[in-house]
Amino acid sequence: MATIAMERRRFGPTKAQVPVIGQGTWLIDEGNRKAAIAALRDGLDLGMTHIDTAEMYGDAERIVAEAIVGRRDEVFLVSKVLPDNASRRGTVTACERSLARLRTDRLDCYLLHWRGSSPLEDTFAAFDQLRRDGKIVSWGVSNFDVADLDDAYAVAGDDQIACNQVLYHLRERAIEHAVLPWCERHGVAVVGYAPFGHGEWPSPRTPGGRVLKEIADAHGATPRQVALHFLVRQPPLFTIPKASNPVHAAENAGAGALHLSEAEIARIDRAFPRGPRPRSLPMI
Ligand SMILES: NC(=O)c1ccc[n+]([C@@H]2O[C@H](COP(=O)([O-])OP(=O)(O)OC[C@H]3O[C@@H](n4cnc5c(N)ncnc54)[C@H](OP(=O)(O)O)[C@@H]3O)[C@@H](O)[C@H]2O)c1
């Protein structure tokens, strides 16, 4: 398989250089298991070494375990604790269960899936303990709006929150109003999830779809690769498309080496406008 010159950037305050295009795994357990494992392995071969999973994703962690067998050190492995488990003790045991399903001794980053009723002090104290014990290398949050990020920062302080994983695709750019600037100011990586709108991809017959196609044709690329590039067009952005089909994984990895001009980025920006700031951060 040809290697792709995948762009990497520093992941928040961590020492890790992480590829801008990674791999999601939600619902990867719903189709053909062998194809899903092949897609993840092909993705790794092509440089998409950031793999995102969660205790919430059914059998996905076990599928990831099979995909990364023998190559754990290549992978930047991320999983998430559910808010209902995110007490001081519950976070530690949830992480240990994820490690067992993933058949590994450590996660590169462990996230609170969304904010629930457990005090952040308790969840973060558990994260610190897991880090001291070598079971996680770094930790972060997901679906945190600016007020949540302020609270998290007040508890954790500088250089502790590795990332905020949030909904981000061409037709859902709400994070650009405040969450993205907050993360940029505080050195927190922003991992955009559902980059293809969780299956709601713009039809090529729409004006936006036509813009993507024209730009793609000019680069010998595909509209999805153009979209992925737009979503990681500047630090501290990363994205994690999910593909259980190896052909899709290869297409997605190809976006990691794409270069678009400022004029092309501006065209996409006009075709998929950011829209007004919503009252609360959208999530799936
Ligand atoms: N933190 C959170 O709360 C949260 C929430 C949602 C998602 N996530 C994470 O983000 C990841 C990505 O989001 P998502 O899975 O919801 O949606 P997504 O990545 O936007 O879309 C996935 C869908 O796109 C298809 N696809 C992928 N690449 C394609 C290609 N090159 N051509 C055509 N179709 C393609 C997939 O098909 P195939 O599977 O058939 O290849 C699948 O049906 C998740 O898997 C999960 O890891 C996190």
SSE blueprint and pairings:
Layout: E1 8-10, E2 17-19, H1 33-45, E3 50-52, H2 60-67, E4 76-81, H3 88-102, E5 109-112, H4 120-132, E6 139-142, H5 146-156, E7 161-167, H6 179-186, E8 189-193, H7 207-219, H8 223-231, E9 237-239, H9 246-254, H10 262-271
Parallel strand pairs: 3-4, 4-5, 5-6, 6-7, 7-8, 8-9
Antiparallel strand pairs: 1-2
Helix pairs in contact: 1-2, 1-9, 3-4, 7-8, 7-10
Bound molecules: NADP nicotinamide-adenine-dinucleotide phosphate.
The site of NADP nicotinamide-adenine-dinucleotide phosphate (NAP) has 27 residues, from helix 9.
Describe the protein.
The protein has 284 residues and is an alpha/beta fold. 38% of the residues lie in helices and 13% in strands. It is built from ten helices and nine strands. It has helices spanning 33-45, 60-67, 88-102, 120-132, 146-156, 179-186, 207-219, 223-231, 246-254, 262-271, and strands at residues 8-10, 17-19, 50-52, 76-81, 109-112, 139-142, 161-167, 189-193, 237-239. Strand 7, helix 6 (179-186) and strand 8 (189-193) form a beta-alpha-beta unit. The longest helix has 15 residues, at 88-102. It is globular, with a radius of gyration of 18 Å. The relative contact order is 0.16. The structure holds NADP nicotinamide-adenine-dinucleotide phosphate. NADP nicotinamide-adenine-dinucleotide phosphate binds at residues 24-26, 52, 113, 142-143, 165, 193-199, 224, 240-245, 248, 251-252, 283-284.
